Amino acid sequence: DQQVKQNSPSLSVQEGRISILNCDYTNSMFDYFLWYKKYPAEGPTFLISISSIKDKNEDGRFTVFLNKSAKHLSLHIVPSQPGDSAVYFCAAPTQGGSEKLVFGKGTKLTVNP
Amino acid sequence: ETGVTQSPTHLIKTRGQQVTLRCSSQSGHNTVSWYQQALGQGPQFIFQYYREEENGRGNFPPRFSGLQFPNYSSELNVNALELDDSALYLCASSLGRMDIQYFGAGTRLSVL
């Protein structure tokens, strides 16, 4: 049972436009979410997070929106740059003190010059 | 400041063999988590070590075991390798159990 779902395996956008990556979750106990970015041959890199007490968190070109009633979050990248081309993972820590991260399958973003 | 480093980068083993993967955590981090990432999937949690004690385990059989050393580096051991163990193994360290996890580049294991 996948608790975190990224239903779009890939996304292609033009440089300068907005990229929107989506993530759905099933576990209503999740109260914190993270986005990681992964380049080939590198490990995932932490990008941005959001707590369930907020509905938006912004960091430069990256904004994450959380809709708790829909159990949905999205990552917006504006403007998109070719260097943003990577696989993006949505993740949530499960409860219990160990902060086990549950990941989605990822969305491969390609930003075309 | 040195980040999370993993060794080896790549490894080829045959079915039934045993393997040890190593991870050096980021300076100051006392928590290490291990993940398995199969092709086309997101990372899956194997287990976490906090101050040398196992602190949570995912749905992996006992032939997956680990250690954390006093310097907070860690090992992942897999016995009786199976073909399905072929994957990227990622190590992540964090300041504490509840903090942001920072990942190494991983070890690519191929089981033939």
Q: What do you see in this structure?
A:
The complex is a heterodimer of chains A (113) and B (112). By secondary structure, chain A is mainly beta. Chain A contains no helices and eleven strands. Chain A has strands at residues 4-5, 10-14, 19-25, 32-38, 45-51, 56-59, 62-67, 72-77, 86-93, 101-103, 107-112. In chain A, the strands form two sheets. In chain A, strands 2, 4, 5, 9, 10 and 11 form a six-stranded mixed β-sheet that branches. In chain A, strands 1-3-8-7-6 form a five-stranded antiparallel β-sheet, with no helix packed on it. In chain A, a hairpin with a 7-residue loop joins strand 9 and strand 10. The relative contact order of chain A is 0.33. In chain B, a hairpin with a 6-residue loop joins strand 4 and strand 5 (44-50). The model of chain B has no long low-confidence stretch (mean pLDDT 93). Chain B is globular. Chain B is mainly β. Chain B has strands at 5-7, 10-13, 19-24, 31-37, 44-50, 53-57, 64-68, 74-78, 87-94, 102-103, 107-111.
List keywords for this structure.
heterodimer; A: 113 residues; six-stranded mixed β-sheet; five-stranded antiparallel β-sheet; B: 112 residues; mainly beta; 11 strands; globular
